[in-house]
Each structure stands twice: as C-alpha cells, then as structure tokens.
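Input/output pair, single chain:
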Amino acid sequence: MGIISRILPLVALGLGVAFLGNIFTRPAEATKGAAAFYTTGSAVTTTLANLGTSAKTLGEGTGAGLAGLLKPLWEIKNLLNYGAVAGTANSSPVAQSQGTESITCNSFKCWASSIDPDRPPEQKNQTITWSSGTSATVPLSQAAVDYYKKLGVSVT
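Output:
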C-alpha cells in the first residue's frame, strides 16, 4: 500500500506533463484527443442519466404495483372497520342529502330516510360479494343495496 501511494502521484504528474507537452508539440492531435474525451464523457453522462431515469421509473412502477396489490385488503379493512380509531373517517357516520331523501352511512350500513335521518328504515341481511371473491353478510337497507350496486359490487 505504501508503494502505490508514492507511485500514484508521480504517475499523475507524468501524465499531466505528457498532456501539456502534447498540446504544445502537436496541437492538432491534442484537439482530436480532447474531442474524443469530450465525446466519451458525454456518452458516459448520457448513459448514467438514462440509468437514473430507468431506476426511477422502475421504483415508481414497483411502488404503484405494490399499492395496487394491497388495495383490496385496505378496502376490506375499511368495510369491516377493523381496528378503527375514534375520529377517523371509517368510524364516523356520513350523511348525504339527495333531494328530500337523506342517506346516512357508517362503516357497516347505509340507510335512507325522508322523515327522520337518525332512525334507519327496515333492513334485511344481504350478502355483498366483491370482485376479489370475498363476501360478507350484513343488514342493509334498499338505499345501501343501490349504493353498492352503483359501485359495481354484487349484492344478493
């Protein structure tokens, strides 16, 4: 290791002297050499930039793919309100107004009422089947059944 650390500076100094000597004694060849170095450097820079862009695209695609794989599990968790914390969107009821009819939903059911939105109408057990094949049987009002059917979920 000691020999290399002593020889390397001398080699670099020798290359520098040779490069300067080439510039003064053969300027045309020195210009061609500089152009070759520039072309090589430009090609290396372009290659590295393309590799960086490809790595970025690969990372974004992998992230989007993994998020897409986990989305069905996330939606099932949201539907079942598994591990809900008070104050989150999944644990608080949501009310929507459609003309004179009010539809109120929480994590487990939706109901419509035109008189008293706090009192849900008659409900019967319905089986909801998602595109992943997962299903659940829960009590749903007709408004909730219509809502799920608009989303493209099978309700029987």
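The two ends are 79 Å apart (CA to CA). The chain has two domains: 2-70, 94-155.
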